[in-house]
């Protein structure tokens, strides 16, 4: 049996097995990358898929930011049992392409917002905050949701805390993150929130 030092010295790329890596681009194009020695060959796989991994599992987790302000994904906003469990009365929908599921049971405000760094997030704050304030005046409970409950709705919640409670970005961010740990506002939203002066 050879020592590890001898194995390392006798190592040769030629002894490695030929491997291919399947790469799916954001556009959905699928390619195979095959390495042979120092050369890499790229071939089209002839398949087309989503440029992302689809997650078809339900996300019914609701983050409680304050007793009257909740945060979730579209899944919880479309689950009547979850909404009733959290005593939701008002729903702020900042998703793209998500219909309001129960218009006869809840008060809705829909503000279609794209989750892009260049979206002017703070321009939506006045109408979002006005809706939340009206709900609070009625002793209501507001659920803010977007598609995944990660970027847009979390950013609105952070901005609301900064505006209403006059707290700095870091504190507002940490409060929302402790309520829903997987929030992740996109980079453009983070810059806008850090520069936001209520």
Integer tally of domains = 2
Strand content: 15-25%
* CATH homologous superfamily identity of the largest domain: Protein tyrosine phosphatase superfamily
Count of discrete alpha- or pi-helical segments spanning 4 or more residues: 7
Sheet with most strands: strand arrangement: 4-5-8-6-7
Helix content, binned percent = 25-40%
Question: Could you please say which CATH topology of the largest domain applies here?
Answer: Protein-Tyrosine Phosphatase, Chain A
GO molecular function: actin binding; JUN kinase phosphatase activity; protein serine/threonine phosphatase activity
Family: Belongs to the protein-tyrosine phosphatase family.
GO cellular component, one term: cytoplasm
Keywords: Hydrolase, Protein phosphatase
Outline the structure in words.
The chain has 198 residues and is an alpha/beta fold. It has 2 domains: 45 residues, no CATH class; 133 residues, Protein tyrosine phosphatase superfamily (Protein-Tyrosine Phosphatase, Chain A, Alpha-Beta Complex). It is built from 7 helices and 8 strands. The strands form 2 sheets. Strands 4-5-8-6-7 form a 5-stranded mixed β-sheet. A hairpin with a 2-residue loop joins strand 4 and strand 5. Helix 5 crosses helix 6. It is elongated and about 75 Å long. It starts with a helix and ends with a helix.
């Amino acid at each position: 049996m050879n020592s590890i030092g001898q194995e390392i010295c006798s190592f040769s790329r030629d002894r490695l097995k030929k491997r291919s890596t399947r790469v799916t681009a954001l556009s959905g194009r699928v390619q195979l990358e095959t390495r042979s020695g120092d050369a890499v060959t790229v071939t089209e796989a002839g398949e087309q898929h989503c440029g992302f991994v689809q997650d078809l599992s339900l996300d019914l987790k609701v983050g409680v930011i304050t007793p009257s302000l909740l945060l979730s994904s579209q899944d919880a906003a479309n689950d009547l049992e979850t909404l009733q469990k959290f005593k939701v009365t008002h729903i702020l929908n900042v998703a793209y392409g998500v219909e309001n599921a129960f218009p006869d049971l809840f008060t809705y405000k829909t503000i279609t917002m794209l989750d892009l760094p260049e979206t002017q997030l703070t321009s939506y704050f006045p109408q979002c905050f006005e809706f939340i304030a009206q709900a609070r005046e009625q002793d209501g409970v507001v659920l803010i949701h977007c598609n995944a409950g990660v970027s847009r709705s979390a950013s609105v919640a952070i901005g609301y805390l900064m505006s209403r409670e006059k707290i700095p970005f870091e504190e507002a961010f940490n409060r929302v993150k402790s309520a829903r740990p997987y929030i992740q506002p996109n980079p453009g939203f983070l810059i806008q929130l850090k520069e936001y002066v209520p």
